[in-house]
Amino acid sequence: MRTTFHAELDELTTELAGMSRLAAQMMTNASIALHQTDLALAGMVIAEGEQMNARQNDTDRRCITLLALQAPVAGDLRVVIAALHASGHLKRMGNLARHIAVIARLKHPNPMIANEVRPVLARMGLLASQLAEDAATAIEHQDPLSGCRLAVSDDEVDTLRRHLFGILFAEDWPHGVERAVDAALIGRYYERFSDHAVSIARQVCYMATGRMAEPTASWRASDAAPCPP
Length: 229
Prior knowledge:
This protein is mainly alpha-helical. It has one domain: Phosphate transport system protein phou homolog 2, domain 2 (Methane Monooxygenase Hydroxylase, Chain G, domain 1, Up-down Bundle), CATH 1.20.58. Helix content is 82%, strand content 0%. The protein has helices spanning 2-36, 39-70, 74-107, 118-141, 144-148, 150-168, 176-209, 217-220. Helix 3 packs antiparallel against helix 7 (176-209) and helix 4 runs parallel beside helix 7. The longest helix has 35 residues, at 2-36.
């Protein structure tokens, strides 16, 4: 019975890693659709959003079943609780990638990203996708140090968003309010997506150690620093 239970836990973490990689691919494709006004790719991301929601609902049902039938304790209980939290973050990541794809579709065939902000948004999209990939790796290896390092890339996303706002609110911004609002909204989606990836990494730290990592400057600065209590 316990062997079967631990096999189910392994399947659960494998599914979470797969969902995180799906979120990464969705964000990559949404960013490409946005920059290249690719209507077909935007539609693919929107369809994948439904797949992500279905997988999240299934994962939650599996977690609840494990809690009800197996009554896990200690480390096993941490895995199930962390999986419940992580699946919620992954659903939101899928929704955020979908939001960007929807904007790309609504603005088609007109490019909506001004040259002034294109490099900033491209970099934010790249970092967001990589954070989701890194979260998947952290889940697979249950490596709290790997998870903690995601906060470093998230810091860059936050810095880029502040830089984006500086461009949009400059007196010489020539593209009007609508395009500024669109760019600000997209930047917000990238930021929130990245924040959710870091939250998943914190759940990995909890899963592996029983402690919840807090994103403080002291441990962000050192790859060797353990997750704090």
